[in-house]
């Protein structure tokens, strides 16, 4: 790729970055969320397609499906075992140039001859049949909506199945009829999906291919009905009434997840939730399971992370939250405008012999944990009285902290941060007992758990 092509590609990627939503907020968290967002620095690993099988060993077939915006649909089909590739593109139009710029023009919004955003699904028919793919297709969007999916409105977002032969057409009609019965039982209306022969498929611009991989901090739009094929457990989960009474008192975190596969949801669990042991519980809900709560953030994107107090949303964000972003939001939510927040995020320092120090200096046997993440940091076995007025330890729990050079204020020091949350804890000095280190730690950013 020459330099001009590279610059053009990068420019176009950023031009479509609107799919990553700016967080909304309420109450005091509004100003805080702006500061949080300004502070974010994302350094994320690149991903790529999984290794594809050699076509010679496979029975390849393909079908072209339209279910609204192709970004999320492409990733969903790629997750089906037996699918070899999923390619975003345009089809089913005439007299309109097949390009993103053209099909999204205002004049084509209601143009019945406009191309649809589609995905060409290439699959190994010896490993997955077309019926399974079409079931996934219907479960992943709302086929009763005409020329739209959620907030995406226009003929380019229409629901359509474009077949390559009569056998595919027969299977598509059969699966559609089956799903219509399920939708009727669930109280939904008539399927608006158009089934017709494929005339020509136009591959979309390169910046649209693997869009969710190239933009790893966005969200997955979830417009599905929650109605499932032959899976009573999943259907029951989607329609199950959840008792939200415990969320009406105190502070809680609610993560809205998808009924189907959502790579951003999995990434949030892997990078944040799976290691979280904080005192404010994380609760998982579907968008249909928020009854009784006062939610202001729109819930069609997954994940959406909501910070709730006494049943009312204080702060919410659509889309993936990095660990840094999550813990800054949690810090504002849990600590408020306090000395602890200043220490954790503005590298402040506790007053000598502060209240928390006096509480923690003589605790029984136990462990001191990160006040936000709950991760173990220091053991009482390693605590000693340095006489400085700050908690002192000879070592940290293995792998729990990060050491960073700190040359501010004309001093040469080593800063200590929590590995899980990234919050500032204090400094380490070489003047501990018997030649050991002295970890000088701010008590306000710790909690104590007795053994």
TrEMBL record:
This is Peptide methionine sulfoxide reductase MsrA. One of its GO terms (molecular function) is peptide-methionine (R)-S-oxide reductase activity. The keyword Disulfide bond does not apply. The lineage of its organism: Bacteria, Pseudomonadati, Pseudomonadota, Gammaproteobacteria, Alteromonadales. It is an enzyme of class 1 (oxidoreductase). Residues 328-451 form the MsrB domain. Belongs to the MsrA Met sulfoxide reductase family. Its EC number is 1.8.4.11. The active site is at residue 69. It catalyses: [thioredoxin]-disulfide + L-methionine + H2O = L-methionine (S)-S-oxide + [thioredoxin]-dithiol; L-methionyl-[protein] + [thioredoxin]-disulfide + H2O = L-methionyl-(S)-S-oxide-[protein] + [thioredoxin]-dithiol; L-methionyl-[protein] + [thioredoxin]-disulfide + H2O = L-methionyl-(R)-S-oxide-[protein] + [thioredoxin]-dithiol. The keyword Oxidoreductase applies.
């Amino acid at each position: 790729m020459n330099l001009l092509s590279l610059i053009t590609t990068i420019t176009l990627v950023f031009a479509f970055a609107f799919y990553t939503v700016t967080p909304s907020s309420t109450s005091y968290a509004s100003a805080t969320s702006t500061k949080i967002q300004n502070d974010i620095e994302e350094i994320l690993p690149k991903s790529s397609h999984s290794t594809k099988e050699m076509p010679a060993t496979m029975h390849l077939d393909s079908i072209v499906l339209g279910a609204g915006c192709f970004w999320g649909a492409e990733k969903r089909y790629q997750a089906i075992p037996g699918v070899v590739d999923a390619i975003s593109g345009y089809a089913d139009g005439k007299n309109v140039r097949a390009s993103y710029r053209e099909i999204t023009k205002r004049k084509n919004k209601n143009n019945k001859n406009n191309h649809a955003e589609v995905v060409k699904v290439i699959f190994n028919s010896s490993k997955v049949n077309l019926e399974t793919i079409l079931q996934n297709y219907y479960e992943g969007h709302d086929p009763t909506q005409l020329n739209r999916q959620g907030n995406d409105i226009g003929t380019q977002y229409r629901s359509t199945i474009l077949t390559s032969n009569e056998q595919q057409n027969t299977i598509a009609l059969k699966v559609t009829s089956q799903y219509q019965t399920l939708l009727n039982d669930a109280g939904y209306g008539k399927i608006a999906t158009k089934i017709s022969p494929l005339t020509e498929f136009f591959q979309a611009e390169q910046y649209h291919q693997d869009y969710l991989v190239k933009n790893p901090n966005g969200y997955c739009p979830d417009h599905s009905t929650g109605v499932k094929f032959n899976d009573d457990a999943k259907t029951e989960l989607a329609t199950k009434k959840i008792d939200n009474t415990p969320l009406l008192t105190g502070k809680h975190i609610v993560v809205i997840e998808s009924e189907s596969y959502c790579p951003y949801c999995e990434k949030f669990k892997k990078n944040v939730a799976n290691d979280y042991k904080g005192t404010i519980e994380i609760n998982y809900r579907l968008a249909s399971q928020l009854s009784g709560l006062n939610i202001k953030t729109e819930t069609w994107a997954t994940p959406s992370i909501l910070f709730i107090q006494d049943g009312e949303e204080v702060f919410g964000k659509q889309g993936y939250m990095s660990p840094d972003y999550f813990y800054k939001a949690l810090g504002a939510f849990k600590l408020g405008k306090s000395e602890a927040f200043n220490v954790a995020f503005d590298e402040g320092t506790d007053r000598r012999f502060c209240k928390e120090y006096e509480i923690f200096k003589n605790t029984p046997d136990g462990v001191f944990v990160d006040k936000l993440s709950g991760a173990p940091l220091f053991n009482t076995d390693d605590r000693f009285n340095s006489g400085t007025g700050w908690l002192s330890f000879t070592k940290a729990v293995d792998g729990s902290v990060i050491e960073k050079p700190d040359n501010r204020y004309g001093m040469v020091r080593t800063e200590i941060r929590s590995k899980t949350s990234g919050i500032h804890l204090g400094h380490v000095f070489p003047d501990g007992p018997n030649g050991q280190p002295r970890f000088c730690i701010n008590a306000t950013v710790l909690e104590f758990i007795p053994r």
